[in-house]
Amino acid sequence: MKVVDMHCDTISRLLDQEKGWTLADNDLHIRLDKMKAGDYLLQNFALFVYGGSGKDLYREAMRMADCFDAQIKLYSDRIVQVRSWEDIEKNAGKGRILALLTIEEGGVFQGSLEKLRTFYDRGVRMVTLTWNFPNEIGWPNLERPAEGEKQDPTRPQTQKGLTEFGFYLVEEMERLGMIPDVSHLSDAGFWDVVSHAQKPFVASHSNARAVCHHVRNLTDEMIRALAQKGGVMGLNFCPDFLEDEKEGGPNGGTVEAVVRHAKHIVNTGGIECLGLGSDFDGIPTHRELTGADRMPLLDEALRAAGFPASQREKIFSGNVLRLYKDCLGGKNTA
Question: Distance of CA 185 to CAs 113, 115, 123, 160, 176, Å?
């Protein structure tokens, strides 16, 4: 089953030059041979910048973009960057994995639409509007607590959403052919995007809150609204977003838990709204889905749970590809 995965944090991990890791040689979830074993068609690579670092977020994201470019150039016989639907059509089925560049943490734009356009020129085609810090675009659902305070991962932010700049940014993204991503965004911000967006958008790596009560997941009302807009949400393999914490601590994640979320999301929003967003290399290692090469295990679990091949194909690739066809801008450059 061909895989299209909307989110991984591998590039930020490759910046650690002490380890000397590359896309072909690392101990991470995402590696070229693992993706080949998992039958990957396309992987989104996020430029994830930690908003609490005190560093210049724009410069840090540019460093990661340079790292991404270097890796694509180094392994150009095995992986190719795509920037448009035409790129995807041209390169699919030719033996190379497709790579789409994204950003996780809209603070890298520093309140500037010109910086947004600069990243568009670098090939960024999807933006997770916030991470876990407020920025110029809006508020997250899971703010970092003040020193001495305890974080409550079940209490969403329902009052603060997009800023005035955030509305302008979503509008400009849609004009350019970039996809807004509401994973990490506050509940209030989600509804701001629903009311303002003219095109489909994504929750690239979020599960169902009715199954696991973490605020990183979407409520049933949100799932239905996303589906009505033609959007897609990606199953996240992070154990904390799959099951509520039990006595004795988390279980490390099971394929069965991922399937429970898939069933609920499809029953709530329909088969067209579900895709994959593993969050590989940004999460603790899932006990069973330990890396890109384990995707066939998920396919088999969904088959055993009663999902026919046509539905599994939509979850693994078809729904996200349909959204890319509808939303992606840019000329054929690959």
Answer: 19, 20, 23, 10, 21
Contact 40, 1 (CB under 8 A): no
Burial class (CB in 10 A: 0-12, 13-18, 19+), 141: buried
Domains of the chain: 3-327 (3.20.20.140)
- CA distance linking residue 16 with residue 21, whole number of Å: 7
The CB density around residue 312, as the number of other CB atoms within 10 Å, is 20
**Which amino acid type is present at position 216?**
R
The contacts found for 246-249 with CB under 8 angstroms, 24 or more apart, are none
Q: Where do the H-state alpha helices sit in 123-254?
A: 164-176, 187-196, 220-228, 239-242
- Report the predicted TM-score, pTM, of the whole model to 2 decimal places: 0.96
Give the 3-state DSSP-derived string for 248-282, with helices as H, strands as E and coil as C.
CCCCCCCHHHHHHHHHHHHHHHCHHHEEECCCECC
Quote the pLDDT of residue 330: 55
What is the 8-class DSSP label of residue 1? -
Sign of CA dihedral 302, 305, 308, 311: negative
Give the per-residue pLDDT at 249: 55
Region 39-46: mean pLDDT is 98
